[in-house]
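Lay summary. Proteins are chains of building blocks that fold into shapes, and those shapes determine what they do. In this project we predict the shape from the chain. Here is one chain we studied, written as its sequence of building blocks.
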Amino acid sequence: MTRAYLEVGGLFEDNWTGIGAVIASIAARAIDDTSIDWRFCYETLELPRDRVRQLLDQRSGLGSLTLLASRVWEAAEIDPSDAAGSVGIYPNIKPMRRFFGREASIIYDLSPILTPEFHSPANIGHFANRIRGDIETSDHVFCISRATRGDVQAYFGLPDDQVSILELGVALDPADVSAGLFGLSGVVAEPYVAIVGTLEPRKNGALMLEFLAQNPRFAAAYRVVFIGRDGWLEEKERLLALLMKSGVDPSRVTFTGYVSEAEKLALMMNSAFCVYPSRFEGYGLPVLEAAVLGKVTVCSNSSSLPEVAPEASIFFDPLDVFEFAQAIRVAELRAAQTRSSSQSLQDITRRAAPFSWDRAYRPVAEWVKGQP
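And here is the predicted shape, written in a compact code that computers can read:
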């Protein structure tokens, strides 16, 4: 049986968004796959399977640093001779290279290289200095979209047989969905639109504020709710400054900060529709989540986003506020047509079925076992 190590350093973040969610979803399937001798590690420290399962059960890395401290004290490092005969999967950066006999990396996007204006100089330097070494020391590279695969092949010249697509999925806790549906019953809330994502420049939240300034009717009819934690380059402060200058009543725009998965789903389900104006994405998971929840998304036509959920998206050029306004009007009409229709947990479960995280785990497991 093939022995494989999954590097799960990303699970030690207090809150899982993006990469952390991908790692957790792959780890959850690996831990139950008896066809592969899966092990788990943080850099070169092997982690007990039961502790990894505990992290997955609590859906957070909060308080997990004591585990790392104890493993260092126990000198629980992977033996280099064992590593040489094993496969290593890196779903984030590679903290060590050519440690395992065969190695594969997951690449999410090349944003710091392709759109450096949206990142700090430190982040660009760190990414640029690492990405080439990570790719050159990987026997295989998984990319999370066709767009990312195209970027990786264009910049690093990888042959087709060395790079493949790992499709992301949606895993909705029935309890969270039921709670969100319960919030829809018997309560008439003021209409609002939801913008999901970390507050960072490439998410292009300023476009919504520009639209509100030019369309006071919309601002009067709908609140705008930004759902997501603060990111970098002081984007939240910039958005707040733009809001104050726009002439829009500040009470019409809300920034939630980080919210739990249950709160995020409830906010998305209760919204009139969702907006995703990002200028660059490796994938765009909130667009898929919105589609599964039965919500239309006014979605940028940039990078990978047209791949995600085209049937549930209304596309626009993220640099064109006029196109954005047209897409918003179409979404308003769609929202008005579907406002009276009800949905159930069964409806959402049915829509989610084709997008199980199994589709992300399956190509990793096949590669580990040496299958094409």
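What the prediction tells us: The radius of gyration is 22 Å.
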